[in-house]
Amino acid sequence: MDLQSKIIDLQQDYIHITDENEQLKKEKDLSGKVRFERPYIFLEGDPDPYCQRCYDDEGKTIGLLRRERHSSADWSRQCPKCESSFFEGENIHHPSAQISSSPRR
User: Which residues pair with 17 in a beta bridge?
Assistant: First the structure.
């Protein structure tokens, strides 16, 4: 392996370690600012919900998209990443939102 290849490998390692370090810092900063209200995750000071599945699985805060007038609910929210759906409203027979998850790709 020549010197140029070693330098490229070291640069790639550096980028990977730097990215991982940034992600760990974000997770540490979020730990005291996240609250769980079934079935959502909320960040301190933000009224909009985030996907619990993505937060639990990957530590990522993915905002949910709101969909109006779903056939079985007054409205629903969907995660653009994992595609989990959350149905809410007076037409739901359970006091909390119902969750429907599709398989991950």
Answer: none
Q: What tens digit of pLDDT does each residue of 71-98 get?
A: 655 778 899 999 888 887 655 443 344 4
DSSP helix/strand/coil, 105: coil
pTM over 0.70: no
Judgement on whether residues 26 and 52 belong to the same structural domain of the protein: no
44 and 89: one domain?
Answer: yes
Q: In what order do the strands lie in the sheet with 98-100?
A: 65-68, 75-78, 85-88, 98-100
- How many other CB atoms are found less than 10 A from the CB of residue 79? 20
The residue type found at 12 is: Q
Phi, psi of 23 (to 5 degrees): -65, -40
49 and 19 both lie in a single domain:
no
What are the helix and strand counts (H, E) for the chain? 2, 7
Helix (H) or strand (E) holding 85: strand 85-88
Contact criterion met (CB below 8 Å) for 64 and 50: yes
- Domain with 6, as residue range(s), is 1-31
